[in-house]
Write a structure and sequence with these properties.
By secondary structure, the chain is an all-alpha fold. It contains 4 helices and no strands. The chain has a domain of 100 residues. Helices cover 63% and strands 0% of the residues. α1 packs antiparallel against α4, α2 packs antiparallel against α3 and α3 runs antiparallel to α4.
Length: 149
Amino acid sequence: MSQPSAPTPGSSTSRSTAPGDGSGNPWAGGGTLFAGFLLLVDGVLGVIKGIAGIATNDVYTVVNDYVFKFNVTAWGWIHLILGVLLIFVGWGILKGASWARVVGIVLVSLNLIANFMWLPYTPVWAVVTIAIDVFIIWALCTDRSKPVY
């Protein structure tokens, strides 16, 4: 009787976890799905921030001496446009669109920068959004598996 041999590195029974081989990390895959939902939520929150900023200048704190001081209405339009784009990208990620990861990383990076510049207006909300954006960027950058949702 012959003994079963141990799998060799090139055999079909060994599992490779190299980036881009389609196997992916299940945590990262689940993180990408969660990132898609967070993109939708982040986009809706951006739309709400934008509408509030456009509707009235009295909703947010007035900032006197700040380098990135814009009219609150201008900030409202920035958040509204980014929010709508994030909703579409989040939907694309949930549908498994190949373009959505790269576009998501770019748009979420812009959203992170915008919220950093928005810190004096709503510090807590901006920090929460920045934390969500950092997670989304991590999830979209680390999952190398093919979308299966």
